[in-house]
Amino acid sequence: MFDTILIANRGEIACRVMETARAMGVRSVAVYSDADRAARHVALADAAVHIGGPAPAESYLDGAKIIAAALESGAQAIHPGYGFLSENPDFVEAVEAAGLTFIGPSAKAIRAMGLKDAAKALMHEAGVPVVPGYHGEEQDPGVLAEKAGEIGYPVLIKAVAGGGGKGMRLVEDAKGFAEALDSAKAEAKTAFGNEAVLIEKYIQQPRHIEVQVFGDGQSAVHLFERDCSLQRRHQKVIEEAPAPGMTPEVREAMGAAAVRAAEAIGYAGAGTVEFIVDGSGGLRSDGFWFMEMNTRLQVEHPVTEEITGVDLVEWQLRVAAGEGLPKRQEELSIDGHAFEARLYAEDVPKGFLPATGRLRHLVFPEGARADTGVRAGDEISPHYDPMIAKLTTHGPTRAVALQRLGAALEATQVAGTVTNLAFLGALARHEGFGRGEVDTGLIARDLEALSAPPEVSDATVALAALASLGLLESGGPETGFALWQPLRRSVVLRREGEEVQAKVQSLSAEAHDVEVGDALVTARRVGGRWQLDGALAPEVAVTGDLVTVFAGYGIGFDILDPLERGEFAAGDASVIEAPMPGMVKAVFAEAGQEVAKGDRLAVLEAMKMEHSLLAPRDGVVAEVLAGAGSQVEAGAALIRLEEDAEAAA
Ligand code: ADP
Ligand code: ADP
Ligand code: MG
């Protein structure tokens, strides 16, 4: 076994590999870009080497720097993770030329599967069923259109170099072909620098079922299937294993085909053979076709680990170190069911817009496996994939595993950025998905309901207001309360550009009434736990000027300083009121004085801070109603300006 390996990756997968390495007594070396100096994967590693700027081309895609880092740190092998250099055969050759071991397949095997057209031809020869279509050399638009007609519409145009759903277009009929071809080629050119395409029959109600394979360079075994049909725009969202509705016969047929594919190219290490499956009826032994092979550890490998009890990274290290396959096919079996959900920083109602931001608070629930590359305080930067974590649950049956996934998503707490938690939660609770009716069109069909923005209840606003005032903590600033008159305070919160105001009336340290618009929410502490209108309150995190209520998958509000808001005296621009109870520290105005908008007229000391009260407009001071040193209630009039001549007219 190696004593040191270098992980040529970042984020959750780098951390994932290091955890197994550590468990095996193998030292790990991290590499990092400028953007990742303080990243979790760097903190987890036994040693770390800086390799360059934040752009992938300057760091995680710079094979020469990574190899130099491995040599310098005494590593004997390089684990590529997924993405970046993991499927780059030139990198594999350079690693080997440097006398190091690449933890993965040979350059030759990667090349054989690198282009979808060549891979399909190879698989066809090996007796693996491939999707009917044209994957020849000819790229002339006229010829391709003719081929599409022969295959029969609808067809799918795919970039031969494709990945991540890029360069792929569905064409319904001959009329739309030319335009779709142009745009597929243009996208493929930009994404992969290769505009060649192939044409495939579009499978109706398709399901994506893939088989995990593992080879030692000669023979291979499979670790059953994963169903990844829950996709948005050809990108996986929730994956599961085993596939719903799978029969022993079809599993046997698909597993055998996948093993044949791996053995045909002398595959070593972990790989995935992806099949497209006709989901319009039940699964059939003649109803699946080879799509592509991913020659690396796959993002969704944890579901396979959960149902087989195999640590795939351990197997990768052992096989790369020269051991044979750790288990024979007969020794592998399925235990229960597992789901994985990909948690991203993205704004779902705004069209799944990737988001960035500092994770001010991050809690993963008990009862779920969380694979993550970030901790509370870390930044989701614009340089990389905005993935926050993968949440995986296991159960004895599909229903139990799915129930656990739903519960885990509800109990996940992220503050500081928007996330797709609500979307994932809605999927986990989707009735059709619950019944196992999965196909790649499910999300698109129900997109509106699945991506609806969360409802923000009055109780949520009330709770956020109380939290922002520090009133939820026991023994907080309000000790000594009983001596006071009931306190009234106003809180202004902002969510998605809209301001909401709440008025808090404190009756005791354990009882507050909160007005939110016309509604009144009562907050009472019973047995040490807060209740809102009698129902147990969700958890809340206050982090700086952000308060996040963990109802509806995390509802965040900015806490606005009421005194900084221009419209504070909006009700009557002639009266300057105390926005909260406090002590008038100083008054700078006297009757008859001319003031200009923005002039500081008084200072109020409240909530342990001094707040300046500014003139809301130009005018003349009519009267000063409170002197320095006086204690005032929220809403008390402090200074009145003379009627605005123009406004009065
Ligand atoms: P899976 O998600 O099942 O692993 P995909 O084909 O969706 O398979 O792509 C996964 C890998 O390819 C990931 O490692 C990801 O980092 C990388 N990848 C996917 N899409 C892109 C993209 N648009 N640009 C660069 N890398 C990508
Ligand atoms: P990528 O390399 O981008 O992952 P794939 O060839 O694996 O491309 O296809 C991605 C997704 O597109 C599949 O998971 C499936 O949802 C859909 N798809 C691919 N081929 C077909 C097909 N022939 N018919 C219907 N859907 C398909
Ligand atoms: Mg794919």
UniProtKB/TrEMBL annotation:
UniProt KW keywords: ATP-binding, Biotin, Ligase, Nucleotide-binding, Transit peptide
Domain Biotin carboxylation: 1-448
Domain ATP-grasp as annotated: residue spans: 120-321
Annotated source species: Roseovarius atlanticus
Identification of the protein by name: 3-methylcrotonyl-CoA carboxylase
SUPFAM superfamilies to which the protein is assigned, alphabetical: Glutathione synthetase ATP-binding domain-like (SSF56059), PreATP-grasp domain (SSF52440), Rudiment single hybrid motif (SSF51246), Single hybrid motif (SSF51230)
InterPro entries reported for this sequence: ATP-grasp, BC-like_N, Biotin_BS, Biotin_carboxylase_complex, Biotin_carboxylation_dom, Biotin_COase_C, Biotin_lipoyl, CPAse_ATP-bd
Cofactors that this protein relies on: biotin
Pfam families (alphabetical): Biotin_carb_C (PF02785), Biotin_carb_N (PF00289), Biotin_lipoyl (PF00364), CPSase_L_D2 (PF02786)
A molecular function GO annotation: metal ion binding
Record-annotated Lipoyl-binding domain positions: 567-642
Record flagged with keyword Signal: no
